[in-house]
Amino acid sequence: MAQHQEMDKHAYVQDYYPDDFSLCYGCGRLNDKGLQIKTRWNGDETLTEYMPRPEHTAIPGFVYGGLAASLIDCHSTGTASLALYRRDGHALGDDVPVPRCVTASLKTEFLKPTPLGPMMTIRGHITEVGKRKVIVQTELIVDGVVCVRGEVIAVMAPASMTGGHQ
Amino acid sequence: MAQHQEMDKHAYVQDYYPDDFSLCYGCGRLNDKGLQIKTRWNGDETLTEYMPRPEHTAIPGFVYGGLAASLIDCHSTGTASLALYRRDGHALGDDVPVPRCVTASLKTEFLKPTPLGPMMTIRGHITEVGKRKVIVQTELIVDGVVCVRGEVIAVMAPASMTGGHQ
């Protein structure tokens, strides 16, 4: 199992979402106008790195909060997919579809202004894995400083959103 | 005063931000790649309407959560500016700069999937106006249904973000 899970260390969950679920503005690999964020395991935590675009400004020099919220949102639904998949004994690359999760609740606390320019790192710490629900605590870090803290409750996408298949 | 305040009924706060503070991806009138949302008084509440772009999808047919969070975020900082300005006896158009606020905390609760297509309406209800802090409760409504509920604590932009001037 350890070797099996080792396989997904450098694989990104968004590359394994079914095509129909890969159009999200935040994390869909098939949305060419979107952010296309990528999330992977990093030990027992999860990691997303994102380089903001110059237009992602708030007040000049700082990242606008909506981007931080968007990154934390999609990072956390990706983390939830990874957590449910691993809980069920799978690693990315297995011949079993990755579950697609959506956000039930998102909280973001802006601790410090987020400088616009350097790479942004989002770390996810999984605090609860239920049958269909995952809770993720996140930190958004720039230059070693935690600028935004987030908490997301993600759930498997309901049938009303997926046309019945998951 | 009533007539004075009546003036800003159809004016949008973002049109009165100083140019330096009008580059925000969410609400800056000078950010031509951004969302350029517009927020105004509607009685004692505030109102933003936004037509999502086709690429703002989550799972096909639904709005991605990061957009909802972004709209609630900028709607609420705009609401905070309006609230502080009115508290000080001003209406948009007065020869006094509008205060620029930033988000300290943002909570969003996704009650129902948000359909992608129709106009999105965000309503803000102001529950607290402090010296430099405003708390705004928001509802994001599509086709008469409250899809997302938000709470934002907004504060006047700190000097560290504005280069000392406000």
From TrEMBL, chains A, B:
Signal peptide: none annotated. InterPro entries: HotDog_dom_sf, Thioestr_dom. It holds the Pfam family 4HBT. CDD domains: PaaI_thioesterase. Residues 61-141 form the Thioesterase domain. This is Thioesterase domain-containing protein.
